[in-house]
Amino acid sequence: MVKIRIRYLVLSFIILIFMASVAYAQTTHLSFSDVDVKVGSKTSKNLRDGSTINDEAEPGDTVEFRIEVKSNFTSTEDVEIEDVTVEVTIEELDDGDDVDEESSEFDLDAGDDKRVTLKFQVPIEVDEDTFNVEINAEGDTDNNGTQKATMKLKLEVEKESHLLKITRKTLSPAEVSCNRKNVQLGATVVNIGNEDEEDVKIQVESPELGIDLKDSAGELEAEPNEETSRFSKAYSFNVPNDAESSSYPVILRALYDDDRRKAEETLTLTVSDCATLKQTGTRSVEEETEEEVELITPSPTTGRTTATVVQPTAPAGTTVTEESFLKSNAFVVGIIIAEVVAVIVGIVLVISLFRRRG
């Protein structure tokens, strides 16, 4: 009977050792030693598994995860965890789709830790809800298999009751000169609040340019990612011809909630002087200034007009080179005429000589 008990105890001890070995083999040696989450300008520190992030996110906010990963292998074990990556997933955040970010790979020596930062942008159009966040870290070892760590958090997204946002504002062209007609301003306004907006008004104005356009966007519903929640249109206007060269603000504004609230953006339109050229044949005004100008002025005593030839003045810093008469077009034409005259005279002399002999 005693022998049976001893055998039973030995067998139980062997089983316990085996189970402990299996448990040790399955125990992960990778963990999160610190997790901080920054939402907008506020930071929630030292978060634990299952925590709700302290600060609520709003549409368009940046959410930043600062995660410290640690190797729990001891220096005695001297095991390196290789190709470690950290991935953060926010479930169903983007119109029902998950969004995720993953770090680059890195290695961890026994007992070391590494901090990584992953950022997300909350969509402009998003439901007000609580979203599940999952953080996963994973790496490999030569003899101890894959090492993993997992943490779950919750992210709350809240929205204002009344909020419109201008998501598109464009000027085409953004600079005008001679042609100042048909400037196009493109605009898109989106309802990102929790309430429908029934009577949204659009204004485009620039007092300095005399621009004052008004329009109605009608009703914008509070339904993310739907056509009924947004308004898009292009507005056309002309810039006055007498507008001086400068940069002018053009204001795009959306009024809502019975005109008590507004979304507003300012664009810049640059107006440049029109460099008009007076054409003379194929030459411009600038080219004409390189020629001599004849001024006709009446004489105060005789009443006769006097022609004065004025040489052009070269701009400062330039060198004026006068062309030699021998190389001018007039000299060449004169040579040709002289040759023609000489030939005619020669012919006449020959004819006269034959007549005398006859």
Report on the structure:
The protein has 358 residues and is an alpha+beta fold. Among the domains are: 133 residues, Distorted Sandwich (Coagulation Factor XIII, Chain A, domain 1); 108 residues, Immunoglobulins (Immunoglobulin-like, Sandwich). 16% of the residues lie in helices and 45% in strands. The N and C termini lie far apart (176 Å). 18% of the residues are buried.
Q: Which features would summarize this protein structure in a list?
A:
358 residues; Coagulation Factor XIII, Chain A, domain 1; Immunoglobulin-like; 5-stranded antiparallel beta sheet; 5-stranded mixed beta sheet; 19 strands
* Count of DSSP-assigned helices: 3
Contiguous uncertain segments of 5+ residues: 16-26, 277-323
CATH topology of the domain at 25-157: Coagulation Factor XIII, Chain A, domain 1
Using only C-alpha atoms, the radius of gyration works out to: 44 Å
Write the element-wise H/E pattern from the N-terminal end onward: HEEEEEEEEEEEEEEEEEHEEH
- Write the CATH architecture name of the domain at 25-157: Distorted Sandwich
Overall geometry comes to elongated
Largest sheet: 5 strands, antiparallel
Mean pLDDT: 83
CATH superfamily of the domain at 25-157, by name, is abc- transporter (atp binding component) like domain
Q: Into which percentage range does the β-strand content fall? A: 35-45%
State the name of the first-level CATH class of the domain at 25-157. Answer: Mainly Beta
